Each structure stands twice: as C-alpha cells, then as structure tokens.
Fold:
Amino acid sequence: MLLDLPSNRAEAWRWSDLSQLPQIAARQPSGTVPEALPWLDCAIDGPRLLFIDGHLAAEQSNLGAIQIGRIEMNRSDHALARHAGSEGWTLKLGRDHAPQGLVQIVHLSTGGADHLAGRIELDVDAQASVVETFIGEGWTNRLTHFTLFNGARLMLSRRLLGTQGFVSLVDRASVGEGATITLTTLSAGGTDSRLDAEITLSGQGAFAEAGGALLARGRQRHDSNLVLRHAMPNGTSRQVWRSVADDRSTCSVAARVEVARGAQKTDGEQSLKGLLLARTATINAKPELEIFADDVKCAHGATVGELDRNALFYLASRGIPLEEAKALLTQAFVADAIDRIGEEAVREALHADAVAWLNQSPSRLREGLGVGV
Structure:
C-alpha cells in the first residue's frame, strides 16, 4: 500500500511519529486469535462483535441491531482516516427500539494494517452504551461517524490494550438538541496512538464530554487532538484528559473549544493534566478557546508536574509506606478521568486496565497496587 503520510513539520502532526507505519503495513497478519478475549461479563449483555484484522468473525459475534456492509458517509480528508474505506459496521436505533444492553466490539490486529469504518445513528430519544477494546499488534485504523438526534444519549468507552504497533482513531460527531455524547478513552497497552475527534453541538442544549487517560512508558507516544464546536445556544461541554508518562515516553493533548457567533449561553470547560513519573519523559498540553459569542462561560486549565510532595508527606504521616502512597496518588490521578463513565461494569474494567498498567511500572510504583482508588 502506498502511504502518503503527513510530516511532523505540520503543526497538527508535530507531536506524532508515523515513521513506523509503512513498515507495519508491509507485514502479513498471522490471523492468530488468543484463547481468551477481553469481553466484559455483566448483567447488561448486548451485541458482541469481533473484528479480526478489520474483518468480522461472524461465528464469534452476535450482531443484534448492528448491520455489516457499506456505510454512507462523506469521504474523509484526514491523512489516516481516508484509508478506512466505506465498508464497516452500523448501529442505527430508532425511538421505538428496545434497549440493546451493552454493545461490545473487540478489534484484534494480528500484524500488518487493518482499516474499518463505523457509524452510530441514534434517533430521537434513543440510547446506546458501547465499549470498544483494541488488542494485538499491527496498525489498527478506524473512522467512526456519530449522528445523535434530539434527546439521544450515547456513552462510548474505548480500551487501547494492544501489545505493540499503532492505533489511529478518527471520530466525527453531530449532537442534536438536548442530546448527550460521552466519549472516554484509556490508552493502557504497548501501542503508540493517534486520536482525532471533531464533535459538533449542532442543537440547542446539547451536551458533550470527551477525554480519558493516556498512559505511556518506554518510548511510547500518545497524541490526542480534539475539537469541540458549539454551533447553537445553551450547549455544554467538558474535556478531561489525564496523561501519565514514564521513561522516555511522550503524551500530547491538543484540545480546542470553538464557540460560534450565535452560540450564546455556552458552558465549556477543559482540564488537561499530566503526571511525570520520570524527568526524562515528556508531556505536552495545549488547551485552546476560540470564542465569537459574548455571553458564555468558558474556562481551561493545563498543568504538568510530579507527584505532590505535600500529599506524599501527609500519607506518610498516616503510616502509609512511600511506595504505596505513590501508587495510591497515581491511581487517583488516572481515576479522575475514568470515574466519569456511567456504566459500572465498564468503569470497573477500565480501572482494572489502569491498575494492570501501573503494576508493570518500575519498582518505585509497583508496591501497593491493587488497592482500590
């Protein structure tokens, strides 16, 4: 495959490293499927889809209301998303659909490059909860479109747990009047990642919350770029990102809020925080506000630092060993982004993923993990 990839000299790509993609794309996938897959066992079972190298494993899937086939969407001009094509999965729910339970989608990459498109369309007052889990190795590339009509509600959680390679996710969302979208991503594997999202609040009183936790070690690179557009009055948005970087890794978050001229009474907040576990690591945080309305309440904040010495001293004064105190503070830092997930089973799964990542950290943090946040 001929890849026309952007250079990191371009402002939007300056924190990304795409140099490994041509080599990964040239590999042949092994097709090997692990015996145990990371399904969530819960009381809200719904459709389950397994994609192996971008192709549906029908015998191991339960489609429910999800359809597989050609997707009608505008062709993306994104440098990576344009490879996704027009074949993929569609979840379309009308107002009269019965609850679908938790929709689980597992994406397994066995080497090489796999591309897939997806679409979620929720009619008036429809609701859906979706969790996507990414495992394996290779280049996993996804483009997903979301359309939420008036009063619809969508909770989407993502777990990036691959062992090596690259994951690129591109989202395009339109949120109608009084509708709600919540998008949470946890990067807690061994892959590099590039996350791009454009969410437009296209109806009055729409709500969007997006963010997550990026955990990196070694020479990993995580790069998130989120644009949240307020196009109509009375919209509310929240962006909450937590980055943890160890060794020589890099975590980067660029988050922007755009408020159109007529989008009065907008309420937008951004919170970008980074935690350095080693002084050789790098965390970049770039919050932006672009406001053309005069009656708004918008705020942003970005901080990068090490563990709070005062908090460590306080815990030590209560008899908690230093290494355990460090572990507890790091877990609490990550939990700030994960606790916003509404589904208990999904929230607990992401907490467990984060603890598993921390358990692989150097000895200065490993001791004392497994204690609840």
About this structure: The longest strand covers residues 127-148.
